[in-house]
Amino acid sequence: MLQTTIANAVSAEGVGLHTGVFGHIRLRPAPPDTGVIFRRFDLDNFEIEAQGKNVARVSYATSLMKQGVLLSTTEHLLAAIYSCEIDNIYIDIDSIEVPILDGSAEPFMQMLDRAGIRRLRRKRRYLKVLKPLEVVENDRRIGIYPADEFRVRCYVDFPHPLVGKQEVEMLVSHESFRSLLARARTFCFQRDIGPLRAMGLIRGGSLENAIVLTDDGVMNGPLRFADEFGRHKALDLIGDLALIGLPLQARVEAHKAGHALHTQLVSRLLADPSLWTITTEETLPASDEPRATAFEPASAAD
Ligand SMILES: [Zn+2]
After folding, report:
1. Is 197 helix (H, G, I), strand (E, B) or coil?
2. Which sign, positive or negative, has the C-alpha torsion 7, 11, 12, 18?
3. Contact partners, residue 135, CB within 8 Å, separation at least 6
4. What is the spatial distance between Cα 253 and Cα 170, in angstroms, rounded to a whole number?
5. Does residue 65 have a pLDDT over 60?
6. In Å, how far are 188, 189, 222, 243, 262 from 55, measured between CA atoms?
7. Cα(115) to centroid of ligand 1, in Å?
8. 237-284 confidence digits (pLDDT tens)
9. Bigger pLDDT: 54 or 295?
10. 205 Cα–ligand 1 center, Å
11. In a designed cystine with 185, which of 104, 106, 284, 285 is the match (CB 3.0 to 4.6 A)?
12. What is the rounded (10 degree) CA torsion for 294, 249, 62, 178?
């Protein structure tokens, strides 16, 4: 399989969820072996590679930091790029935070559709996991295990009548991401809005870019999926795994995890080269296996 980039440059603009800062992004083609690189064009094109080594403090969103230059909320855009199997791309941005747009990855998928995908004359390199690695924190955990293809399983459990226990299990591909995850939006609990604002977060949050859950329902329905929350967490997981910097041959299982655990897994994996190898071999041809999914319905959603 050959490496890819995008065929044409495409742009978008909008406000950042946490900073509230308005910014512009432009996706541009990049040559083979570039990887995914953010370039702050407001700072002389300062480059921040979308890689585990640049992960900064992570709480409610994933941020990258290099030499004091910060870039926040990378996960939805990176999830779209990673799932579309784009190996090389420049993400030019003039702001401290990737625009949140509608809170999902769908606007980024539409950008990538407009850009088109171009194959490059260089073999794609995969990170193939050889030995398992797990990160556990109380009842939260995440693990990565050897597998022939990139699969994720993501389990969430929030004590809320519309959420409860939700689980997503899938082979990650352009098609499965588009149909199952891309449209699932960010969410937050109404009771957390005050405390988050007090922490200087969600300054750009609105009913247009996040689902707001009240104590017993949703403030700005309808939901796009009954289990939109579980799907969004799987989207976030894939966006954080993109920081591995190469397509994965591995299975990842996340149980009540979040950005902090996702990025810890990425950092610990990359720090121990005995756990993986880099290969240009595809272990399996693209199969006719159904792009499988198993969703549990939201516990009390009707
Ligand atoms: Zn998210």
Report:
1. helix
2. positive
3. 141, 142, 143, 261, 264, 265, 268
4. 11
5. yes
6. 23, 26, 34, 8, 11
7. 23
8. 999 999 999 999 999 999 999 999 999 999 999 999 999 999 999 876
9. 54
10. 12
11. 104
12. -50
Q: One of 18, 76, 160, 259 is an active-site residue; which one?
A: 259
Residue 25: what are its φ and ψ, rounded to 5°?
A: -125, 150
Terminal alpha carbon distance of the chain = 44
The residue assigned the tokens 């432009």 is 26
Ramachandran area for residue 163 (φ above 0: left; ψ -120 to 50: alpha; else beta): alpha
C-alpha dihedral sign at 226, 230, 236, 238: negative
CB 164 within 8 A of CB 300: yes
Please confirm, yes or no, whether 160 is among the known catalytic residues: no
Q: Give the C-alpha separation, 97 to 242, whole Å.
A: 17
Q: Is 302 exposed, middle or buried (0-12, 13-18, 19+ CB in 10 A)?
A: exposed
- pLDDT given for residue 235 in this prediction: 98
Residues in the chain, how many? 302
Check residue 298 and give its pLDDT.
Answer: 40
Residue 61 and residue 186 in contact, taking contact as beta carbons nearer than 8 Å: no
Q: Find the 76 Cα to ligand 1 centroid distance in Å.
A: 6
Q: Number of C-alpha atoms within 13 angstroms, CB side, residue 248?
A: 28
